[in-house]
Structure formats: structure tokens, C-alpha cells
Design brief:
Layout: H1 21-28, E1 32-36, E2 39-42, H2 44-63, E3 67-68, E4 74-76, H3 77-81, E5 95-98, E6 104-107, H4 112-119, E7 131-140, E8 155-165, H5 168-188, E9 195-201, E10 208-215, E11 221-226, E12 231-234, H6 240-246, E13 254-268, H7 270-274, E14 278-280, E15 286-288, E16 290-296, H8 298-309, E17 326-330, H9 338-352, E18 357-360, H10 366-376, E19 380-384, H11 386-390, E20 394-398, E21 404-407, H12 409-416
Parallel strand pairs: 3-7, 9-12, 17-18, 17-19
Antiparallel strand pairs: 1-2, 4-6, 5-6, 7-8, 8-16, 9-10, 10-13, 11-12, 11-13, 13-16, 14-15, 19-20, 20-21
Helix pairs in contact: 1-8, 2-5, 2-8
This protein binds adenosine-5'-triphosphate and magnesium ion.
Length: 421
């Protein structure tokens, strides 16, 4: 992509009500647009990042037999009455509206109820289970507190997977599989070292549920971390009994600020009972399905990545989610200049080879281009100038380490796409 074509621009000022580090940087770099407090739009660069996060999650959900669907945001009151989750006194984050005939509707806060109801139309016998279904879908929540930028918004995409099993054992087995898949996701996202499997309260069907908490200075949660065991305990469940269960000592735990990037629950038969999701077993007897739900927040993850890696010059993206792999910059303003032509030639070769390149072909000063490049945070900068050509090629500089060197154009092409000439 040519930077001169990009409609977004970097800027110094952000809306005065913006206090979070993640949204401030993303707004300044033009990745997102603030519609109003707690509601953000994704612009070309930001959408590329969120889509990369989504794609990594999708691959790992497909690896554990997830089937992708897309449920509706519009929800009928009756579906939620069945589990007593409609009334504002029970769930206080609903956005509600109505049809012209008066029928009450709400914008989905989550999807346990509608998916259980839907599955009841397909599940008949033991042969129909287990099944695992997931989506990336918009949730609406009238959150009171919206001060964490894109990490807590009133409209956000969630990856929610639901498992439907025959027995508790089958459900427990899948729960463990999903837990392992989540660990893989965070590793691939570059957050593996700072994300902890966290024990939280489980409810009536299981002793624990699990959260995935990423250490983050501006996170809203506090967790008790056991660094050696790579686990953490949620504040609410820190009791002597839990310490004993997990075989950890209180003095080996350190309290850390963190952000809940994902969570997994065993739902037992709560929803299947309320919404009539049953099957006929091998003996012809009617049984309730056992369920689990597994959430991940791509935008919260993006926010945590920003908070964790950004420095005083701007964003720093891990390779796996960066909007582009390379930021190619030409210093020459004159299109007839040899180094400008060289940059054009390199841009063409790289894009032809399928490398994701943002090409700063704008008529800006070198200083302005470098400052923008630091703010945008693409992992590797490639500068083409008369000087770099005289020295034998291009200057590459890693955003994270600031390390730079001159390499030949051939080497650049070989590094980024080994199979192009
Ligand atoms: P929290 O306690 O932070 O409000 P939650 O318990 O409501 O989270 P879930 O309903 O289980 O979270 O949602 C699953 C995932 O969706 C969370 O782990 C988080 O990554 C993401 N998420 C939840 N609420 C928001 C929000 N308001 N904005 C952005 N992402 C969110
Ligand atoms: Mg919440």
C-alpha cells in the first residue's frame, strides 16, 4: 500500500476525553476513529491488525474442530426470559429497543441463549454430539466504565465458542483442549510470556473457571501470579483451600495488574435445561447436553499489545499482528531521482512477491517520515536514499531494538521472500 493513498494521517492531538494509552496512540497513528466514549471505528491500518488477530484465533479454533457461524445481534426478550437474563435487575448492560408492533428486543450482550435454542433444532440423538461452534460477532454492552480505550468498549467483536457434549467427561475433556488452544493463540500473538492461566470461580457445575490474564500496567484487574508455575489466581478465589488445591504457597505469589483477554467456563446443563437442548442416549433415554463457553476479545487483545510494547516514540507491533511487515521509505521527493526510482522498483518486487509493504512515497521531509514511521510501529523500516545506495543498498532498522544496518536489495528480497529472485 502506498502511504500517499492512505486517507488517514498521523496527528498530535486526540479527543480531550481520551485518557487511555492504547487509544491515544492508536488515534494519533490513525488506526482507529473515536465515534464517542467507549465506541471506536477501525480504520485501514487498525482493521489490518484486528483481522490478523482474528485470523490467528480462527486457525486455532478450527484446529479444535470449531465450526464457524455468525449469529444475530438482534435478540428477542423471550429467549432470555428462559434463563432470567433479560431483566435489567439481573443483567444491567443491555441496550434495549423494540419493533414497531411493540415486541421488545435487545442487542446481544453474549450468545449462550440463542445458540442453545438454535442447537436444540439440530441435536436429536447421541450421534449428533459433541459439536463445537464459534463466531466472531459484535456484542453490545452498556458498560458504565469506558476509560480503557479499545480494551473496554460498548460495542466490540468477541470470539465466542460453545461446546455441546453428551457427558460431563466429554465436556471436561474438550475444556482442557480449548485451554491448550488459548495458550497457543497467546503464544502466536506474541503475548505468551506475559499471559497467565488464571483460576477464577466456577459456579455450580465446576470448581473453577479460567481466565487468561495478560500482565498490563493499565489493566483493570489484579491477579496473584505464581511465576514459576506460570499460573495465577483471581483475587475473588484466593483462599487457603485454593492455595492447597493448586499446591502453591501464599508467599510465592506476587500481585500484578492485568487485563482479562479471554475466559473459559463450564456451563454444565444450566442453559440446556432452560432452553430444552436434549438428546436421546444409546438406551433411548432423554439426556441434557453439557455445555461450555469460551470467549476472547480481539480488540482488548489489540489494546493490551499496544500497552505492552509501545515506547515513547509510538506503537511497536509484534510481527504476527503488524499491519505490514515492512515500512519502505524513500527520502527523495523528486520522482526523477535515482533513489526514488530504486524505491519504486523495490516496492514492486516486494509486493509482487507477496510481502506486505507500506510504501511512504509522500512528499514529506525525512524527519517527518521517520517520526511517522516510529509512531506507526511497523516492525522493520527500509530506507532508500542516495546515501544508502552509495553504501550498497538500503538501510534496514528494526522498530523494537532500533538496530540498523545496510544490506543489499538482493538480501532484502531474500530475507523477506526467500523464493523470489
Ligand atoms: P470483564 O469482566 O472485563 O467485563 P467479562 O467477564 O464481561 O469481562 P466475557 O463476557 O466473558 O467477559 O467476554 C469474553 C471476552 O470478551 C473477555 O475476556 C474480553 O476479552 C472481551 N470483552 C468483554 N467485555 C469487553 C468490552 N466491554 N470491550 C472489549 N472487550 C470485551
Ligand atoms: Mg463485563
Amino acid at each position: 500500500m502506498r502511504q500517499s493513498h492512505l486517507f488517514t494521517k498521523t496527528r498530535k492531538e486526540v479527543p480531550s476525553d481520551e485518557t487511555s494509552k492504547n487509544a491515544t496512540l492508536l488515534l494519533r497513528a490513525g488506526y482507529i476513529h473515536k465515534e464517542f466514549s467507549g465506541v471506536y471505528a477501525y480504520l485501514p491500518l487498525g482493521l489490518r491488525v484486528i483481522n490478523k488477530i482474528i485470523e490467528i484465533i480462527r486457525e486455532e479454533m478450527n484446529n479444535i474442530e470449531g465450526q464457524e457461524i455468525s449469529l444475530t445481534a438482534l435478540q428477542e426478550k423471550s429467549t432470555w426470559d428462559a434463563t432470567d437474563r433479560w431483566d435489567d435487575s439481573k443483567v444491567d448492560v443491555w441496550f434495549k429497543t423494540a419493533l414497531k408492533n411493540g415486541t421488545e428486543l435487545g442487542l446481544a450482550i453474549t450468545h449462550e441463549e440463542p445458540i442453545t435454542k438454535m442447537m436444540s433444532q439440530y441435536v436429536r440423538s447421541f450421534r449428533d454430539l459433541p459439536k463445537y461452534v464459534y463466531q466472531f460477532q459484535t456484542k453490545f454492552r452498556n458498560e458504565t466504565r469506558a476509560k480503557s480505550g479499545i480494551m473496554r468498549t460498548r460495542e466490540f467483536i468477541m470470539k465466542d465458542l460453545y461446546s455441546f457434549c453428551k457427558t460431563k467427561e466429554e465436556q471436561d475433556h474438550y475444556y482442557k483442549k480449548a485451554q491448550d488452544a488459548y495458550i497457543k493463540v497467546f503464544k502466536r500473538l506474541g503475548l505468551g510470556d506475559i499471559t497467565y492461566l488464571t483460576f477464577a470461580s466456577g459456579g455450580i457445575f465446576s470448581k473453577y473457571s479460567h481466565e487468561f490474564q495478560t500482565i498490563c500496567e493499565n489493566g483493570e484487574d489484579e491477579i496473584y501470579v505464581h511465576h514459576k508455575k506460570k499460573i495465577a489466581i483471581n483475587k475473588e478465589v484466593l483462599t487457603d483451600e485454593v492455595l492447597k488445591d493448586l499446591d502453591v504457597k501464599r508467599e510465592d505469589l506476587s500481585i500484578e495488574k492485568a487485563s482479562e483477554v479471554g475466559n473459559i467456563f463450564s456451563l454444565g446443563t444450566r442453559f440446556s435445561e432452560a432452553l430444552n437442548l436434549s438428546y436421546t442416549d444409546e438406551n433411548g433415554e432423554k439426556q441434557l447436553a453439557w455445555m461450555g463457553s469460551y470467549g476472547l476479545g480481539p480488540a482488548r487483545i489489540m489494546g493490551v499489545i499496544v500497552e505492552s510494547f509501545a515506547d515513547d516514540k509510538g506503537l511497536v507491533w509484534p510481527e504476527a499482528v503488524a499491519p505490514f511487515s515492512l515500512h519502505l521509505i524513500t527520502i527523495a521527493k523528486d520522482k526523477e531521482n535515482d533513489s526514488y526510482k530504486k524505491a519504486e522498483e523495490i516496492y514492486k518486487k516486494l509486493t509482487d512477491a507477496g510481502v506486505e509493504v507500506l510504501f511512504d512515497d509522500r512528499e514529506e521531509s525525512a524527519g517527518a517520515k521517520f517520526a511517522d514511521s516510529d509512531l506507526l510501529g511497523i516492525p522493520m523500516r527500509v530506507v532508500v536514499s542516495d546515501k544508502s545506495i552509495a553504501l550498497g543498498g538500503v538501510e534496514i532498522k528494526e522498530r523494537k531494538s532500533d538496530k540498523s544496518e545496510i544490506i543489499s536489495v538482493e538480501e532484502l528480497l531474500k530475507t523477506y521472500k526467500p523464493n523470489c529472485e
